[in-house]
Write a structure and sequence with these properties.
With 176 residues, the chain is α/β, with parallel strands linked by helices. The chain has helices at 100-115, 129-141, 149-156, 165-172, and strands spanning 2-10, 15-18, 33-46, 52-56, 72-75, 86-88, 120-123.
Length: 176
């Protein structure tokens, strides 16, 4: 399921908010505020080996609404504070984590949970850069070629996944 929402962004204050759903975080009439249409993810992604992972983006209006809570969530942004069992990875927005081994270890554990039938969830803030990069790494863990992992995640999850050249290089440099 992918929903579309409108956010307003103020570049001067480096803030954004959901139009009509939360108070404006900048009311300075002199600032240029851009309205952007964004989509929210709450998608089941079938990895190349058939394992299912739920990929999500953070919805500030109701971040924890689910038909069924996951058995475990791995979140790549500390804004996530769900009531269910979860873990976090230190991973800067639009960047890559400093410790690739910790990322592979955490994703391998998530993958192992999913392969045993647990419903697992993976998410960052927007669901594109960090989540897309992590999904590409999961594809590699299934045996998918690292050289094609970015194309795989864009074709099987979201065309906007893996946002930066640094994230692409991070994926290409990993060894499962």
């Amino acid at each position: 399921m992918t929903e579309t929402r409108v956010i307003v962004a103020c570049a001067e204050h480096k803030v954004h908010w959901y139009l009509g759903a939360e108070p404006a975080k900048c009311t300075d009439q002199k600032h240029q505020h851009r309205q952007l249409e964004v989509h929210r993810h709450c998608d089941v992604v079938m990895l190349p080996d058939g394992t299912q992972v739920h990929a999500v983006s953070f919805d500030a209006m109701d971040p924890y609404a689910r038909d069924r809570q996951p058995d475990y969530g791995l979140y790549l942004d500390y804004r996530w504070r769900p009531s269910w069992v979860h873990g976090h990875l230190d991973w800067p927005d639009f960047g890559v984590p400093e410790d690739p081994a910790a990322v592979v270890t955490a994703l391998r554990a998530l993958f192992d949970r999913a392969r045993t039938g647990q419903q697992v969830e993976l998410g960052c803030l927007g669901g594109h850069g960090r989540t897309g990069t992590a999904l590409a790494i999961l594809a590699i863990l299934t045996g998918h070629a690292a050289s094609d992992a970015v194309a795989w995640v864009r074709g099987n999850y979201c065309p906007e996944a893996v946002e930066t050249a640094g994230q692409e290089a991070f994926i290409a440099g990993l060894r499962s």
